[in-house]
Amino acid sequence: MRDLDWNSFDVLVVDDEQDNLDAFRFAFRKSFKLHYALGGAEALGLLDRLDPAVIVADQRMPGMSGIEFLKQAKERRPDTAGVLLTAYADVTVLIDAVNSGAVDRYVQKPWNSKELAVVLRQVISGFATLRENRRLREQLALYAGYLEREQRDPIDFGEIAGESAAMREVTARIGEVAKASTHVLIEGEEGAEKEVVARAIHVGSPREEQPFVKVTCAAFRGDALERELFGWRRGAFDGAFSERAGRLDLAHRGTIYLDEPAPLTPSLQARLLRVLADGEVERLGSTETTRVDVRVVLSLTPGIEEAWAHAGVLPELVSRLSVFPIRLPPLRERREDIRALAEHFLRKYARRNARAATSLSEEAIAKLAAYVWPGNTRELENVVERAAILSRGDVILPEHLAFTARPQPPEPPARAPRATPAPEADTTGIRAPAAPAAPRPKLDLSSQLDDIERRELLAALERCGGNKAEVARQFGMQRTTLYYRLKRLGIDT
């Protein structure tokens, strides 16, 4: 018989006589997790919040017989095994009950505790097998879904293409870390295609043929993220009627990509630290530890690490998650890549739609290069796709480009220096020393870009009447990212 923890499975005992319930309690209280009900009506009420592995019911009860009760119970809990206790051996009735599926086993009264214990273990084992098979089918279906999405939407590594020095450095770091099993931290703004970098690391690694499991952490609130990552045992919390594998189990031997994991509960921090340090996973509600071999790739937007520090995230956890950081530069810092990216996106949509434009005019590229790109590469892709649809010819023109924010206006031409009077003729024969040249102003590209972004955000806030949620939606960023940028740029709203 399977090596199961019998006390982890609920057993509901139903009888209309308290003495019989007490006898059952005395015989089996140390062997099984028992619940009791006086009669069928009370037991049916318990089934609204209880998911028993087995129900033991007496046949002769007033108002509702054991067989009638088990039929109704099976409608609510079809996986639950039904054991009927009877002193009246009406064979025809029992056979009909078994054939109907209401009764799985029947035991003659008076029962023998050892024999009944064997029966209970047998039906509990069957219940556990049924639930395990279902869990495995669901896990396989979930994994098949990942594979189907991979085939249907193959990753487009052209989205991190670029000849700028910044992107060449990113590409080099991807190549450096891919062959190792080191955990990776990817930092970049919204729309900077952090997931593409994570997948590039996975594809370039020995784990390429194993699962790549993405977890959009913002989709889970409270303890839900912990449950999703680690899975649970049956009965671990209200509604946990069956066991479920976590995403870490699904990513075994592969890569798990955690997109923006904030905030982190203390319990989740401790569990993640155990995974990173020892590769150990323990499902919620379980004391059984399993080992997983998984690389963790984490993505953050600027400012989250600071928020982690304020939230008291364990320093050791931060240290282990940021062993190998990769910073993705925003598009406004690598404008020399805009042409190549725009042409890449245009080819991508031209393949999908034969009527789409196939090239961009130089004026259109100049307009793209003048834009601040708060939504980064993802926004560029959206702009190019929209322009490819709006263009009636083969070439995208400036008028086909529509932006969320305003393009950056060209810098005003430099004024000519004011003429200075010619010096009077020198009659002494001695040349006067030349006046020292005025120092050339130092260009501060970072502050100029900040000024551009500040203007665009202020304009967007004015257009949206100060509605930050709408501004974040228009720029394709999360509100936390918007708040961080407003604070960094000194915009008081």
From TrEMBL:
Residues 404-446 are annotated as: Disordered. It holds the Pfam family Sigma54_activat. GO terms for biological process: phosphorelay signal transduction system; regulation of DNA-templated transcription. One of its GO terms (molecular function) is ATP binding. InterPro entries: AAA_lid_NorR, CheY-like_superfamily, Homeodomain-like_sf, HTH_Fis, P-loop_NTPase, Sig_transdc_resp-reg_receiver, Sigma_54_int. This is Chemotaxis protein CheY. Residues 416-437 have a biased composition (Low complexity). The modification 4-aspartylphosphate is found at D58. It comes from Sorangium cellulosum (Polyangium cellulosum). Residues 10-124 form the Response regulatory domain. Keywords: Activator, ATP-binding, DNA-binding, Nucleotide-binding, Phosphoprotein, Transcription, Transcription regulation. Signal peptide: none annotated. Residues 160-389 form the Sigma-54 factor interaction domain. PANTHER family: PTS-DEPENDENT DIHYDROXYACETONE KINASE OPERON REGULATORY PROTEIN-RELATED, TRANSCRIPTIONAL REGULATORY PROTEIN. The gene is cheY.
